[in-house]
Specification:
It contains nine helices and eight strands. By secondary structure, it is of the alpha+beta class. Strands 1-2-7-8 form a four-stranded mixed sheet, with no helix packed on it. The chain is globular, with a radius of gyration of 20 Å.
Length: about 290
C-alpha cells in the first residue's frame, strides 16, 4: 500500500514518497491514514494521562477529560487554521463561513463536495485545548496546573502521530534540498525536499521520551507545578520556530513575510512555556532550600 522506493536523480538517491491516502474503504466510507493517526495520538495520550492519574490523590475523570480535549483541540485547530491562514476565503461570504464548521466545500454552482476538515492549525489546537481545560477544571473542581501538566506530558506523543499523518498526506512539505535523505513528494512535484513533517515527528518523539525520563527521575515532584506544561510548550514551539525555515510557505500571503505565520504564532507560546518552566523550577528550588 505504501509506495516507497529510491531513484537516481542528479547522482543522488532520494526517497520517492507516494503512499495511498486510504487504508481501506467500508460501505463507501474511507478510512485514511491521517484520521487513524489522529485517533491513535488522542487515544494514546488519554492512556498515558490515565496511567499518571493513578498516582495522584486528585483523581481526574479521564473519560470526561478526553472528551473536553478532543473537542477543544479539533475546534481550536480548525478555527485557528481558518482565522490565521484562510481568513480571506472563509470570511468572504456566508457560505464560505459555514465551511469552517462543516466538512464540505460549497461550489459556486450551488453543488457541494465532501472535503473533510482540510486545514488544522497546531497553534489553534493549543489555544482550544487550554480553553477546554479551563472549562473542565472549573466544572469538576480540579487543580488547573495538575491537569495542564498531565496533558502536556502526553501532548508530544499526540503531536508526533499528527505529523506522521501529515507525512502520509504529503502536506506541510519542506523546501527543495539536495540532502541524501530528501523526499520527493510525488503528489506535489518531483523536486527533492526536506521531509519537514518527519523532522517534527521525530523531535516530538524525543521530547516525549525525555519527558518520561524526567518523570521517572523526579517521580511526582514536578507534576502539578506547571513544569511539564512549560517544558512541552517551550521545546515544541522553539523547534517549530526554527523548522519553519526549512518549510515551504503554506499560504500565498506568507511569501513577503520575514517570519511566516507559524513562527509569529510560536513566539507567544514560547514565552508562555519558558515562563511556566522557570517559575516551576524556581518554586521547586526555593522549596528544597528553605
Amino acid at each position: 500500500m505504501l509506495y516507497l522506493c529510491t531513484k537516481k536523480i542528479k547522482k543522488m538517491d532520494y526517497i520517492h514518497w507516494n503512499p495511498s491516502l486510504e487504508i481501506f474503504s467500508v460501505l463507501g466510507i474511507s478510512i485514511r491514514w491521517y484520521g487513524l493517526l489522529w485517533a491513535v495520538g488522542l487515544l494514546g495520550s488519554s492512556i498515558i494521562v490515565d496511567r499518571i492519574n493513578k498516582y495522584h490523590k486528585d483523581i481526574l475523570l479521564v473519560e470526561h477529560l478526553f472528551f473536553y480535549c478532543f473537542v477543544g483541540i479539533l475546534a481550536g485547530a480548525r478555527i485557528g487554521h481558518c482565522v490565521f491562514y484562510g481568513s480571506a476565503y472563509f470570511f468572504s461570504s456566508w457560505s464560505h463561513f459555514f465551511e469552517i464548521f462543516i466538512p464540505i466545500r460549497i461550489l459556486s454552482t450551488g453543488d457541494w463536495v465532501y472535503t473533510g476538515y482540510a486545514g488544522l492549525a497546531s497553534h489553534g489546537g493549543v489555544i482550544g485545548l487550554i480553553l477546554a481545560l479551563c472549562i473542565y477544571c472549573n466544572k469538576y473542581k480540579v487543580k488547573f496546573l495538575l491537569v495542564l501538566d498531565m496533558i502536556a506530558f502526553a501532548a508530544p506523543f499526540c503531536a508526533m502521530m499528527i505529523r506522521f499523518g501529515n507525512l502520509m498526506n504529503s502536506e506541510i512539505i519542506g523546501c527543495p534540498t539536495d540532502v541524501p535523505w530528501a523526499f520527493i513528494f510525488e503528489k506535489v512535484d518531483y523536486l527533492p525536499r526536506h521531509p519537514a513533517q518527519l523532522y517534527e515527528a521525530l523531535f516530538y518523539g524525543c521530547v516525549f521520551v525525555l519527558g518520561c525520563i524526567l518523570y521517572r527521575k523526579t517521580i511526582l515532584k514536578n507534576m502539578g507545578t506547571g513544569f511539564y506544561f512549560g517544558y512541552c510548550i517551550s521545546t515544541i514551539f522553539i523547534f517549530r520556530f526554527f523548522v519553519e525555515f526549512l518549510k515551504e510557505v503554506q499560504e500565498d500571503f506568507e511569501h513577503d513575510m520575514f517570519l511566516d505565520m507559524g513562527q509569529i504564532l510560536s513566539i507567544p507560546l514560547i514565552v508562555i512555556g519558558l515562563y511556566f518552566l522557570f517559575v516551576s523550577l524556581f518554586k521547586n528550588y526555593y522549596r528544597h532550600t528553605k
